[in-house]
Specification:
Strand content: under 5%
Largest sheet: none
Number of domains: 1
Keywords: Membrane, Transmembrane, Transmembrane helix
Distance between the termini: 15 Å
Protein name: DUF1772 domain-containing protein
Number of helices: 5
Shape: elongated
Length: about 170
């Protein structure tokens, strides 16, 4: 592979790691710092400001980055197809798709109910519990995928992979 092409492949793979790291940081922060406080601190008067502006910005951000990441994963699959590391982009297909499906099919419904305005405290707590559970599922999947991506880079740094051997 030419040096230029290899640099472009490296940038492509680094983008995947960049996105997985953003995911990792966001979901670990939610899990460790916000979720433990949500049930006891969020109420009908303050839940909206604690959730909706942030999720709206995250949705806009990931609306741009995830399709690019999907293309990058396809490029990684093509470039790794004849190597022992082809399982990394193959695993990324469901590793990216499942969290997106959870978001679009389930979390967006809850977000929309939050946006419409929850007027019952019991319903708010029910929605928060479901919202946190669904985001914790994504946290687990994306933590695993970050580990897979880190393994990829560690393996690629080893001499046995330096020439794209099978």
């Amino acid at each position: 592979m030419s040096p230029l092409k290899q640099t472009l492949v490296d940038i492509n793979n680094a983008y995947i790691f960049f996105c997985s790291s953003i995911y990792l940081g966001m979901f670990w922060s939610l899990h460790l710092f916000w979720f433990p406080n949500y049930p006891s601190t969020l109420n009908l008067e303050n839940y909206y400001d604690a959730i909706i502006p942030q999720t709206t910005l995250a949705t806009k951000f990931f609306f741009i980055t995830i399709p690019i990441m999907a293309v990058a994963i396809v490029i990684m699959l093509i470039t790794e197809w004849k190597t022992k590391l082809k399982w990394v982009p193959i695993l990324w297909a469901p590793g990216l798709l499942i969290p997106v499906v959870i978001q679009q099919a389930y979390i967006e419904t809850i977000n929309n109910e939050f946006i419409d305005g929850v007027t019952d405290e019991a319903r708010l707590q029910e929605l928060l519990q479901e919202w946190m559970y669904l985001n914790d599922l994504r946290w687990i999947i994306l933590s695993i995928m970050w580990g897979v991506t880190m393994y990829f880079f560690i393996a690629k740094a080893k001499p046995r992979y330096s020439k794209n051997q099978t």
